[in-house]
Amino acid sequence: METVLSIQKLTKNFGKLCAVNQLDLEVKRGQVFGMLGPNGSGKTTTLGMLMGVVNPTSGSFSWFGQPATHETRKKIGAVLEHPIFYPYLSGQKNLELNALIKGADPANIPKVLETLELMDRKDDKYQTYSLGMKQRLAIASALVSDPIILILDEPTNGLDPMGIAEIREIIKKIAEDGKTIILASHLLDEVQKVCTHFAVLRRGTLMHVGPVDDVGKGEELVEVQAYHDDLGVLLQEFIGSGQIKKENGLFQVMMKEGYHSTDLNRFLFDKGIVASYLATRKKSLEKQFLEILTDHSHS
User: Fold this and answer.
1) Is 203 part of any domain?
2) How many domains does the chain divide into?
3) Are residues 150 and 193 in the same domain?
4) What's the mean pLDDT in 43-59?
């Protein structure tokens, strides 16, 4: 698997604020790589550095094994903020202008319109487009130069549920076409639905990196103790119990997916047992991420 992006110790400080802290990452060809984190976690700053619009404080990165140059950037299509489109021109005309500016082949335009499901509206003025269509045209403009890599910053932000679903389907379609995609999102759900691999950022620091398939794994492990002779037997009756082990007088219950310590506590309580000790030893990845993503305590 060819490495298309390699990031080493990438750091960005804005005065005293460290927006991105010693970031190490690798993206392989063909991956849909999600950068997941709450707002202010450093995702946009990282993408800005990768695209050359923000200068790193220290560290480095390379595209296709080479330092970033104007040439390597031509192989990358990015939608970081809304591109400037002319309201009175059609989608088609806007893309033609875009191709002209980028020195891209206008012959790519029909395929791009097809992929982004804008074919039937290509001759309508940009100002008549819905938010979802405007976002799709923005992605289309990034694809006109037939880049190897597509970078998307919060691609579904501000869209209604239908617009969100459409963009997600389109991202999958672009990935199936063989493009490598890097996208930033603050939604775990989005990353789970469209990405193959992901990294979790919190306040500029990498918290986790790995395949998306791992998120469901690593269920919760709950330790429980109660003054009851048949506790072990009862725990097996609990619908959410997976494997049960006994260690140092404590029962360790592996929770089945979707079950948590609160469910176990309620089960015991309904049986008239009050747990003398109940603690979550290991949280599922999903739960850990949700805690990071809803982390509003900014220091």
Assistant:
1) yes
2) 2
3) yes
4) 94
Pairing state between β 250-255 and 241-247: antiparallel
One domain, residues 206 and 244: no
- Asked if 118 and 242 sit in the same domain, the reply is no
Domain of residue 228 covers 221-283
- Pick the closest to residue 247 from 273, 223, 226 (CA basis): 223
- Residue pair 151/77 in contact (Cβ under 8 Å)? The answer is yes
CA separation for the pair 46, 289 (Å, rounded): 20
- Say yes or no: 93 and 194 in one domain: yes
| Secondary element (H or E) of residue 93 | helix 91-102
Chain length of the chain:
299
Q: Are residues 140 and 260 in the same domain?
A: no
246: amino acid identity, one letter: K
Q: Are residues 142 and 268 in the same domain?
A: no
The answer to whether residue 103 sits within a structural domain is yes
Greater pLDDT, 42 or 221: 42
H/E element, 286:
helix 285-293
- The predicted model scores a pTM of 0.81
Q: Could you report the per-residue pLDDT of 164-192, keeping only the tens digit for each?
A: 999 999 999 999 999 999 999 999 889 99
Q: What is the mean pLDDT of the chain?
A: 90
Spatial strand order of the sheet with 17-28 comes to 17-28, 3-14, 58-63, 66-67
Question: Is the dihedral angle over the CA atoms 191, 197, 199, 200 positive or is it negative?
Answer: positive
Regarding whether 246 and 271 lie in a shared domain, the answer is yes
Residue 271 one-letter amino acid: K
pLDDT, average across residues 129-154: 95
The torsion angles phi and psi of 234, rounded to 5 degrees, stand at: -65, -40
Contact 241, 200 (CB under 8 A): no
Residue 37 belongs to some domain of the structure: yes
DSSP label of 196:
S
Strand partners, 76: 149
Note whether 40 and 157 are same-domain residues: yes
Query: What is the 3-state composition of the chain as percent helix, strand, coil, each rounded to the nearest 5?
Result: 35, 30, 35
